Known about the structure:
With about 775 residues, the chain is an alpha+beta fold. The protein contains 22 helices and 27 strands. One of its GO terms (molecular function) is ATP binding.
Amino acid sequence: MHKYTIEHSLLLLRKNTLRLSRSSRAFHIINKNQTQLVQRFIKTPQLMFLNSNISYEYINVNLGQRQFSNSEGQKKEEEQPIEVVIDELTKEESEPILKDSEKMEFKAETKKLLDIVAKSIYTDKEVFLRELLSNCSDALEKQRFKQVSGSSQGGNDLYINITTNSKDRELVLFDSGIGMSREEIMDNLGTIAKSGSQAFLKEMKDKDVSLNDSIIGQFGVGFYSTFIVSDSVEVYSKAEGHNGVRWVSDGSGEYEISNADNLGFERGTRIVLKLRQDCREFSTENELEKIIKKFSQFISYPIKLNGQMLNNLQAIWYRDKREITTDEYERFYESVAKTKIPYKYLLHYSTDVPLSIKALIYIPSTHNEKYGIQNETQDINLYSRKILIKQNCSELLPNYLRFIKGVVDCEDLPLNISRETYQDSSLMNKLRNAMTRRILKLLEEEARKDKPKYNKWYEEFNNFLKEGLTSDTENSEALFKLLRFNANFSKKELVSLDEYIEKMKPSQDKIFFIVNPQIESAMNSPYMEPFKGTDFPVLILSNNIDEICFQQSGNYKGKSFVNVETSYEEIQKDLGKKEESSHALSKIPEDEIAPFSLWLKNELQPQITKISLSKRLKDAPAVIVGQQSSSMRMMMQMMDPSAANEGLKDQTLEINASHPIIVNLNYLRKHDAKLASLATHTLIDNINLLNGTPADVLKLKDRSFEMLEKFLDHNLEGLDPKPQRKLKAKSQDLEIELPEDIDSVLKKSHEDLKEKKSDKIVREHVVGSENNKNQ
């Protein structure tokens, strides 16, 4: 609160002065020689020029409600002294007095480096405002620390003010922060990549002061981004206990520095940008408001643009989560995820190890990729002390976590000349690893806390986790903990690998699984026969990708993954069964086994290259065992149809020598080799069909029809009369066989019909005559 007389030549410019709205009149009581200065700041000023002999002690800006007395300076009795409230920005706009000016050249290869900074490093011109606001925030934070620690007298509020003049292409930023002396400006702005913030932190640490200072800028670094958009830059600054100083440069390699009095503010820094013609949009309110809200809306200090407060939002991730309501969390999620669909899980996370991180992470309840509409994009933003470093930061998390939404704020993140270039990639990797592990841990905790809720989420997002298993070997065990499967001991509820291990037998060191999307089909698969009547656990994988994950990782907690389609010896080791000899179980004469096996091998090459007597089968006639499981062969067929038959080669046919089909097949091959061959290939077609890998659909169809035809012919033998075959199926078309003399057949049919009608008439006539006689 200040009292001013006419001699102060007050210039009341701001709308908040005396609580005036922006549409209110701005008044100034000046001499005529001051008009030019006023017109720089007031677009439609209402000026009142007073004679110099008037010497009123107090002045009210609302001239329409005050009466002035005579030149003796006497007011009317009803007039009371009026106090004029004026903020720092009002005072800052007085004309400075310059002295001791000198021109100097930049250090550190000035011209060349400045050209690189201004033209090469920044990909977006708008970042200059982010850099300036970051520096303003740094200066305010330094001043706050000094006030709190008692090393400053305090004074005015801490804030940032921005004013625009689109007509003259001017942009002015003022902060009421710590300010700079002449030496500090020369040191910080005269040298490329000289960090005043780093020097300040070092000074505080040297004093052994407990410091949690939110310094993010690098004076002399981001500041030079102003030359991307400006023809010239003026800096007016005043530190407490020092004279004011003015620094000006056009970015050509030299600058001018002067002492400056009458700056109009006691402490702080004012930056005046004379914008280039092609960058005049940065002097418009709409453009600046958009940029400020994009990069700096979470800065802790008030930012006003032409008197309007812009940063109303709080950095919610900096607040104590116990003080945040569910509604606040939901509204923030809607702002970052751009959706009204509720999220599933929330992580409000803060740690100092291994990095200083504050994060607010949301895990959605659904995603777009399942509809095939679009790929998910990482809506997660990277901040450093509330300043946006990068939107949709894809480097922050691995690609398989691209569904994650939220913000991550890392105070330890050092930046190169531009905040768009990460200086320390190893530190960025450390941040990435820390966040990845914490998110996976959150999902594990939620799965343990509420299984049905997690299983429902898992149905939506399991493919993302499986994608991670194929790409993120470092976190494979954490990802395996999150997978869920059906099992022969839990058909209705999904189980984890840890739950499976709890069901394992003491002698069991393998995790058995079968791949089949249908649970009942999997349970009745021939490959599951060894497990019938036992309580050995078997996982039922619904997706071919699951087996790829198992194969790539090899094991989980030292337990290897084994597909039950593989060699029975692998399974028998864990089952601990002592089976009878396969020859003892056979119903085929022993001396016929070898020639029968050789005959089968010759019939089925190249798909089958080995025949063996099965020890595992009880109900099924045969199974096929290969180097690849049926699910992997199916996957290969989907990926490369031309190479599908390659996966069907070099396989072993395990036959159940006690099964009627196999026994009869051996008998048939000795009496009707052609029919036995047809039956054998039909059997293989059905086994492949059961496994989901039919070799050739057309051949399968032809063989099935031929086998059905022979079956019907055989079963109709001996029937009297045997029906004449009227239809003959061909692969190309359908042909109807008719008698050679079709006309005679039709004539005979017609005569038979006439004869039947005549017999009917005669019978009716005879019956009628008999009735008449009786009457």
